[in-house]
Amino acid sequence: MKRKAIYLASLLTVILILTGCSKASTSEKKEDTLVIGTLTTPHGEILEHVKPLLEKEGVTLEIKNFDDYILPNKALADEDIDVNYFQHVPFFEQAIKENEYKFANAGAVHVEPMGLYSKKINSLDELKNGATIITSNSVSDWGRIITILQKAGLVKVKEGINLETASFDDIAENPKNLKFEHSIDPSLLTSAYTNEEGDLVAINANFAYQAKLNPVKDAILLEEDNSPYGNIIAVREEDKNDPRIKKLTKILHNKEVQNWILKKWDGSVKPVSLEKQAGE
């Protein structure tokens, strides 16, 4: 009986040790792995590029691709992911306002220019009176598109309106009597372009790339560099100082990585430097 008791005690000790090791291993994996939600292009490609660089810093990057603009923030709020990288600041702020998310902006990485494309015209001179402009149903993009149109002399908003938050109802002057359709999901805008719907279609750059469109070369109208539309790293407020996230943002702002981004997309994806953000 004594020998049996000693055996059982030894077995229990081994089980406790193994359990402790298993827990430690799980904890270590959690601390060393960063799960990030993103869009395939260009965000996902950028993350795949920096993944081995982050690995050298002791952090394993697990990339989860989404195909819409709603789920990455929901996944972040639900703690299904640790961080996301897909949205510009106005969209981020609108999402927080509408959903009461407790998120923080960990810094902008790059700017993707919004462009207006057409299969019906080759230049702005060919745009007819009463032409239709198709945009997305994403309210945070409307001011961005209106800014492009105003700088091109096609519309003018009411006095005192903030262009970043302007809507189509804020347009005071519309000399060409342009018509605006803004009920389409952003991911379907390339289909509207391909099907020759409307005279101009405003397409977010990440979807334009997927349709083999180069914003710099193919857009009839293209927005100027505009830092408020930098695509950011978004985190839950309590995780803003997480060492893993700091390592990720540092690598994304590495000069060699930024040069790679410029070369990869022929200058149509523009990195946002830390110096530029500090100066804003």
UniProtKB/TrEMBL annotation:
It is found in: Membrane. Residues 1-24 form the signal peptide. It comes from the Bacteria. GO terms for cellular component: membrane. Pfam families: Lipoprotein_9 (PF03180). Keywords: Lipoprotein, Membrane, Palmitate, Signal. InterPro entries: Lipoprotein_NlpA. It is a lipid-anchor. The keyword Membrane applies. The keyword Membrane applies. A lipid is attached at residue 21 (S-diacylglycerol cysteine). Belongs to the nlpA lipoprotein family. This is Lipoprotein. It comes from Enterococcus raffinosus. The lineage of its organism: Bacteria, Bacillati, Bacillota, Bacilli, Lactobacillales.
